[in-house]
């Protein structure tokens, strides 16, 4: 009877090892399928991906990132050097930071780039009204949305205030007084708005 028990125990252990290995392999396969490689052209400088800072190297070269399926938000700016024929010197052209929103679905590769900017006049036109192209591995356009960084930050702040306004008042443990946390958030939002208006 002990030989049969030992044989069954070995069989059970082998089966458990097989199932564990299969699950591990499946998880690796699903991870590689659900992620896309995003390449950003060298004339775009990325600051944030999904509200996380991105470190920049010294040399300007295409930047490559792995993104999982879902919504993504990039903060970036345009930066390039052109020859100013009128003054006979090179001139750095750069935009303010702006926000790009898009969704990764089943794409494997994505390329984010500007339209062809060949001269100083085209670069100056671009910084006033940026237009980007997002293409997948089949050269199909992927929908994206552009907005100014100020508008994006204002919308984030408004969402934060609206969320906090729907939160109930909190009772302070120190002296059992009701503290209205929404009042503090409302004041900080109004201060943020007034600061943005002064900048303009």
How would you describe this protein?
There is one protein chain. This protein has 200 residues and is an alpha+beta fold. It folds into three domains: 33 residues; 113 residues, no CATH class; 49 residues. It contains four helices and twelve strands. Strands 2, 3, 5, 6, 7 and 10 form a six-stranded antiparallel sheet that branches. A hairpin with a 4-residue loop joins strand 5 and strand 6. Helix 3 runs antiparallel to helix 4. The termini are far apart. About 2% of the residues have low confidence.
Biggest sheet features: 6 strands, antiparallel
Share in helix: 25-40%
Q: Name the quaternary structure.
A: single chain
How many discrete domains?
A: 3
Overall spatial form: flat
Order of helices and strands: HEEEEEEEEHEEHEEH
Low-confidence stretches: 28-32
Class from secondary-structure proportions: alpha+beta
Number of helices in the DSSP assignment: 4
First-residue to last-residue Cα separation? 87 Å
* Radius of gyration (Å): 26 Å
If you average the pLDDT, what whole number results? 79
- Give the percentage of residues in beta strands: 25-35%
Number of strands: 12
